[in-house]
Structures are given as C-alpha cells and as structure tokens.
Amino acid sequence: MASCRRMLLKVIILGNSGYVNRKFSNQYKATIGADFLTKEVQYEDRLFTLQIWDTAGQERFQSLGVAFYRGADCCVLVYDVNVMKSFDNLNNWREEFLIQASPSDPENFPFVVLGNKVDVDGGNSRVVSEKKVKAWCASKGNIPYFETSAKEGFNVDAAFECITKNALKNEPEEEM
Amino acid sequence: MQEAELHDLSDDADYAASQQEGSASMMRCYSSKLSTSSETEGAEIVYLKDNVAIHPTQYASERISGRLKLIKQGSTLFMTWIPYKRQSTNAKLSEKDRNLYTIRAVPFADVRSIRRHTPALGWQYIIVVLSSGRNRKLYTVFSWLVVYQVEQMTFDVACSTSTYDVQNCFSGLAFPPLYFYNGGVREFLTTIKQHVFLVRSVEDTNVFLLNDFQNPLQRTLSSLELPRAVSIPSMPSTPVLARESTSHENQERTDVGISDVSASIPQYNGRRRQKFHDPARDISIQVLEKFSFVTKFARETTSQLFRESHSNGFRPLERRKSNQSDDYSHKPSDDAEGVAVQSPVAPDPVEVYVCSLCQLIALCNNASAHLSMESVLGHGPTGTWFSTSIPGNLMPTSILVEQKVPYREHNRDGEAATNVGTFELISYKEFDKLSLVWGKPRQPPLGLEEWATFLDSEGRVVDSKALRKRIFYGGIEHKLRKEVWAILLGYHTYESTYAERKHQRSIKKIEYETIKSQWQSISPAQAKRFTKFRERKGLIEKDVVRTDKSLSFYDGDDNPNVNLLRDILLTYSFYNFDLGYCQGMSDLLSPILFVMEDESESFWCFVALMECLGPNFNRDQSGLHSQLFALSKLVELLDNPLHNYFKQNDCLNYFFCFRWMLIQFKRELEYEKTMRLWEVLWTHYLSEHIHLYVSVAILKRYRGKIIGEQMDFDTLLRFINELSGRIDLDATLRDAEALCICAGEKGADCIPPGTPPSLPVDNGLLYSQQDEVL
Q1: Which residues of B705-729 are buried (b: 16+ CB within 10 A; e: fewer)?
Q2: Is the interface score ipTM higher than 0.90?
Q3: Which residue would you say has higher pLDDT here, A108 or B152?
Q4: What is the span of the domain harbouring residue B462?
Q5: Residues of B with CB below 8 A from A67's CB?
Q6: What CATH architecture does domain A2-170 belong to?
Q7: Chain B residue with minimal CA distance to A56?
Q8: Distance from CA of A72 to the nearest CA of B (A)
Q9: Is B718 on the interface with A (CB under 8 A)?
Q10: Which residues of B touch A70 (CB under 8 A)?
C-alpha cells in the first residue's frame, strides 16, 4: 500500500557554497553543529516531508558527520559556479559523506549536484562550465545535475522533485 | 486487596499477644501509678491505651503496636507511645524499626493540634501535630522525609494551593498517625481537655487546637489573611488518606458537633469569630498532618526509586507549574504537557528530591511569612550529613544530605532530645544514593556600589573568591561588565591596581596594533598568492555579517562594529595562526565586543577566553569530544535512566549538545542571558565545568518529554536546537548548582583532565593539528 510507505526523507546538503540553505531556512547564522528544516514536497500525487540537513560548513567539523548523516536518503552536493575551488571540493565532500554515512550500497547511493548562484553578475563571473560539471557527474554514476539560484528560487522546485525521486529510489518499497 | 488486609485481624498473632501483654502491663502500670503518685514530682498516668499502633507501611499487618499514655507531671501533660518490646511475628519489622517511632514524653506545650479520624468503618486514629519551637532541631530530619512523602502522596497540595504555610512544614512536625485498635479516641481527647487548653477548630470539627493562641507566630500568620486554599486531595491508593477526605467534607459542613468540646471553654466563642478567616493556620496543620504519613512506606519507595530507578512502575512525579513561584517555575508553560507525560518515563532520582524541595521553597518564598529556621544536625567525624539553613529573610540557602555518610546511632541531638522525648528516625543507611541540594536563589547582579566594596583603595580585588562567588550567584550589572569581565577572563589580574590596569591597556593596545598590521600590510597582489589568508578572510567576512544581526549594535549594512568583529577575528587568526578562524568564533567574540566596546580590549579579552575554549575548535574536535564525553558521564551519574535511554537510542555521542559546548549556549539564550551565563561560568566558582552541569540541568528538565516522546537522535537534535530562546536561565543555573554539589567528587571524576575550559594538560603545541583548508 502506497500510503503506508515512509513519508519522511532525510536529505543531507553538503558543499562550500555558503548561502545555499538560506532560501529555505531563512537563517542568517552560520550553522553550528547541525540542524535541519523540513519541506513538504509533492511527488507523484503523494506528499513527502523532506528533512533537509544543514551541517557546519567548515571542514574541521566533518567528523560530526558520523552522527548527522546517519540514515540519510539522499545527499545533495552544492557548489558555487563562480568558485572553482567549490567545484574541486565536490569529490572530497562526496567521499567524506560515503565514509561518514557508510550507506549499505555506496555505489548506488543517490546524490544530486546543484550548481548554485548562477544568477551572480548575470552569469559573467561563472568559472565552472556546465560541461565540466556534467562530465564529473557522469563519471560518478550519472549523478543528476541542476543549476539553481537559491536567491531567485530558480530551478529549486525541480531540484527538490529530483531529490525526492532519488531519495525514494534508495528505499524502493520500505514499509513503515 | 489492601482494604482486606487492613481489616483482617483474625490471624494476627501480634495483635493477640499484645492483648495479653496489654492487660499484664496495665496492671503494672496501675501499680506504678499508685507508687508514683505519692512521689514528689507527682507524675501520674492519667490515660493509658493499649494496642495503639503505627503503620510504618501501607499494610496494617506490618503495624507496630504499642501503648499510648498521658502522663501528668506537675502542671505539665506529657504524651508517650512506646511500642511493645517483643519480637514481632512479622520479620519485616526489626526491633530498630519499632524504636524508630517511639514517642517519649512529649509535653503538650509542644503540641499544636490533634486531628481525630473516627470513621464509621475502619479504625480510629489521631494525628498529633507539633508546633514549631525549641524542638524543631530534633525533628528536622524527620520532616525532610516527610517532605518527600508529601510530594509522593499529596503533591497537589504544593501545586494547587496558591498560598500555604510552608514555614510550618519545615518548622513543625507531625507524628505518624496513631491507630486506636481498641477505640478510645474520644476518651483520649477528653482527658487532654481536662488538663490543657484545647479547642476545636472552627474550620474542621475533627481538629483540636492546643496552646497556639499566645504564639506570636500564629498571630503573624493569622494577620497575613491568606486566601483560602483548596482542600488537600487524597491519594486513592492510600486508604488512610482516602479516609481523610471524609474529614474534609466535615470541614465544609456546618459546625454541628462543636458543642462537646468548645462548650467547656468559655472564651472560645469570642475567639471564634476572630479566628474564622484564618485559613493559613488550618492549612498548615493539614499539611503537617499529611507529613505525618511518613513511615517506612516512604522510606521503601524512596530507596526503591534510588536503586531501581526505572521500570519499577513507580509513577513519575507530576510536576505541575506552580504559577505563583516566579522564582522557581520549573517549566515554561508551553511544554507543561510534556512534563506530565504518563508514559513510563523513568523517574529522575535527583529530581525527585530537588524538585520537591524547590517547590516547597518556592511556596515558602511566596508565602512570605515571617519565620526563620536554622538547624544543623549531626556534625559527625564524617562531616555534615544533614544541614539546613534558612536565614531570617526566608531565602533558603542550602540543604544537603551528603552521600555515603554512615548513620549516626548516637548523636548529640539524640541526647538533647531526652527532655522532650526521643523520636529517632529513619536509618540513613537506606539513603546511600540520596544527595540533596537545591541551588540558591539568584541574586540581583553585582552593582557599582557593591563592586567598590570588593576593591582596596588602589583598585585591587581583595577577596577574589568572594567576588567570584558573588558573581556566580548574581552576575554583573551591565555597565560594570566592561571593568569586571576583563578581570574575570584573566586579561587583568585580580591583584592589579587601577594604575596597573591602565598601563596594561596602553601596552596591549600597541601590541594589538602590531599584530593587526601584519595582515593589514598584505597587499592585494600578495593576497592573490596567499590562499589561506584569502580564504580565512572570506570565511570571516561571511560569518561576521550574519552574527547577531538582530542586535542594533550589529545590524544594518556596513556597520562599523561588524567591521571590528572582522578585524579582531582576522587579527586573532594571525595571533594564533595554527588555530586560525573557525565558525563559532564570531559568536564568542560578539558579546565581548558588545561589552568592551574598545577594539584592542575586546581582542585581548577574546584571547583570554580562547585560552580556555580554543580546544573547542581543534581540527580533531578533541576539546569538544572530551566535553561531550564528560557530559555523558555526568548524566550517567546524575540521571541513570536518562543515560540508559540515550544508550538505547544510540544518542550517547551527545552531538545534539554540540552547539551548547562549542559556543557556550550563545545560540540558546537571549543576548543578555548569554552574557549573564558567561560571567557565571567564568567565575569557575564551584566548578570550572559548571557549563556541563548546566547541560545536565537542561536535559533533566526535559527528560520527561525526551523519554516520553521516545525521541530518536534526529528528533532530539531538532528538539534541542529548538529550545533556543526558551531556556529559563536562572532556574537552570540553580539546577546546575544543585547538580554540581550533588555530584561532588564523583562528578569531578567524570570530567577528564584538560577538558575545556580547563587548560590543556599537555603544554606542548596547542594547535599543532593541520587544517588543510583554513
């Protein structure tokens, strides 16, 4: 019965992109430790609660991930299309996540990559090309990729629909 | 089932034996009466009743039977109740148990009231309530146990009455109910009436008052005109109390049966009108009567609570917000329902005690009656095992029953007691785990005038410990913080004079500017090839603009104070390049700059703070982990059921308290409260790690909700994060103080050496760890 399926999906957001969560969390403070907000999303006529986890961005807090990533259904890797280093770090974040969360099937654990801040300076300050990031995503098992602007809300809903879909993929028929 | 047991006497060998001994000793007594009546002191037994029993447990079969006597000596009437000497058929009752309850020669001058219970069905019994006075000291130990009992059985008293006479709860005392198995309550009262001044209470026809009209305390209480309190509910599982509710109905009835006693007291009618609106006294008597039900039952449930503190089916304390006690309203109202959760939440062993006391004290403060109590019992070679102290201003200071102190069989108080009758009490062996403290009420913050009294003429702090203690209990007025924080944080020493501090400020300002110039001199071209600097600066800039934006001091764009935050943090990252900048530091600096205002002063105070808290930001998180580890140990010590809950739910890493530790509750409290907490923490009074006890206090405060709602790690994290802004700091600090004292040495042992804010044990490289990015 579809209605018996779990409706709560835990999504971890990682990356060096600063304000990615601001749009959703309305928070103006750096996250200390970890926190999450919830977002209701509709997918295939069903309502889901996404539990969107924001963890302290600084690398030296990564060891906390062991506790905070536990039970995640999906990991969203965010980078800033205007900062090459944030793209370079995607690989580190992904690997760190897989180590800390240690999902049962790391090869197929659902990730989604978001290229953020595409609106900055009308796109003129962009340094990471779409081609480059898509190549990386393809090399990691065809990770879905979205370009978003959290500030403008551009493509955000589509991204979350995809996140939901992928998170569900992770637990195809889990019953409550 | 209990009812049947209560009334089943058929196979009670004890009863039968006592009948025999009763008649035998009756004869002895009569003969002794004959002999003593001729003696000079003129002691005379005017009343004697056998098979008067105390019920140490809720089971009548475990009663202790004895003989009740009224003895007239000169003009003084004494009451004694001596249990029968033979071994009981009931193995559960030791000889010692019997002796515990012995009442020896209590003069009626010390008796305040007697309540009779003469139900149509069931046994008659009386409760003798003692008045406050010279015997207080003797009975104090007992009254503590009574307090507990009241909490268990009739806790609604404390919660639902808007005012009630707690002073008397502490200062007065009631003996356990005396059950008249052979009847004779009426005769007993009639005999008393013949010898001492006794009137029937107008409020309750079953209460007889003695001696209290000349008592100034009574007049004071009467003059308070306290509003009528609600009646004391009874606990259904306790037949004795259930019966008592009948007497409360009597209380509401018109005073029909008053004639038999009051008629013989001519002046009574005149007084009656005057006394009619004097509920305070009556309430206090009622409460004391409740206290009288302390018996072995209480003792057993107590030790049960302490030993098998979970899954024993014992209902958790229903702590309801007593809305009149601002000082110690334990719960924000919005989660009151979480507290009264009926699910099998394991009771909190410490809380049971601390809360009951705090509740009573809150009421005590509220009642604002005038009475002081001070007693210290049992200073033995092993230390004070029980002490109470309530100075005249009614501010309770401390009450503690220390752990593991052996029961003193013979103490001075016991000897002192001989002239009024010994009332030995409950064995303290049973209370190994009992540690009882309540924190002092918070004081007003340290003000300018008082601050001056801590300084000598040249500005040195004369008694730093006294100062730290003062700040621990009250904090500092805001305008004084600038001066005192610098000393508390260790930027200035306590011994420094005004002149020395001034001198240091100027020296340090130059030093600060030197360090600051190190990064200021980095040109844009140089910065391009200095990734670490750029990234640090970028991260700092990103964080300072989102630090305390809600405060006008930091709000708006291009706020100069925000720029100061940035400059100080960047300078610090050069001053301590190994540690650098880490998220959370801007939170720690913000209040310091807000208080110190001056850039250099803020920097150096921040440096002093980071001396202690720097390890919080270690790359390996060792500073944080040692604190979280210590916290888990403290919870294990102070709330084992909660610890077990965390264990079962995979929460023992305590990461949900990460934010508390990292930035010292900065995100959990309002700005002013954060400053208050910090200055309290910085005193290092009682413990360097009082913040850990603060954490335990908060967790304990919400333990009912956490366990009741079966929170998993994620839910718990969210719950803890959402406590932000809802923590009652003063109450929490009192809890923390109490817990810290409770934990004592054992608590200190939970905290590994070098745990922040203690200075690291290893004085090698403090921040030798490599941080790849920053």
Answers
A1: bbbbbebebbebbbbbbebeeebbb
A2: no
A3: A108
A4: 448-616
A5: 653, 655, 713
A6: 3-Layer(aba) Sandwich (3.40)
A7: B583
A8: 11
A9: yes
A10: 713
